[in-house]
Amino acid sequence: MSAKRENKTGIVILAAGNSSRLGEPKQLLEFKNTTLLKNTINEALLVPNSIVIVVTGAVHETIEKEIDPSKIKIVFNPDWELGMSSSIIAGLKEFMVSAPESNTCIFSVCDQPYLTHTVFEELVTAHSKTKKGIIASSYAGTFGIPVLFERKYFNALLELDEQSGAKKIIKNYIEDSSLVPFEKGVIDIDTQEDYQNLIS
């Protein structure tokens, strides 16, 4: 029983940015009768045997008022201005404390509106089937988030500098990586035009 309880998949949702190109917090944009961030959280919570961690930063006080902390863990990243790598590190540290015996962690963002629990689950399934240490999403001729990392890459993630993202690790260990198609992953919200195209 304890193994089932302890070996959870982490889902770290990176929501610390200030949405400078958008002009307002993208995390709180209305979508599907909720917000982009809450929608991502709700989908992550549907993944069996997972632990969901949200990393906040620029507008953390506003976000923390908006989301229910009873089912998720909220981590404030005071270094959010240094870029996404700092939020990856903050989220992963929390996961390693919360579930020290767990083996896999998925990193996600909150502005991919078509991200569903099925996408997360396909990453987990691909990891189980391929035995590869990294499972990334593929779209538009490239690969990226959401991406699953096995424990053996946790130290590399913790050592990311502000210029390097997780993509660097995937490229460095491409032979131990596998891709899962997520065609709509190419759609994210960076500008007002992106958002208007989404809701129109």
Identify the strand order in the major beta sheet. Answer: 5-4-1-6-8-7-9
Number of separate strands: 9
What share of residues are in beta strands? 15-25%
Q: Major sheet, described briefly?
A: 7 strands, mixed
Walk me through this protein's architecture.
This protein has 200 residues and is α/β, with parallel strands linked by helices. It contains eight helices and nine strands. The protein has a seven-stranded mixed beta sheet with strand order 5-4-1-6-8-7-9, sandwiched between helices. Strands 2-3 form a two-stranded antiparallel ribbon. Strand 2 and strand 3 form a beta hairpin. The model has no long low-confidence stretch (mean pLDDT 91).
Index terms:
seven-stranded mixed beta sheet; 8 helices; alpha/beta
In summary, what is this structure?
This protein is α/β, with parallel strands linked by helices. It has helices at residues 2-6, 36-45, 60-66, 84-98, 117-130, 154-158, 166-172, 192-199, and strands at 9-15, 30-31, 34-35, 50-56, 73-76, 104-109, 134-139, 142-150, 177-181.
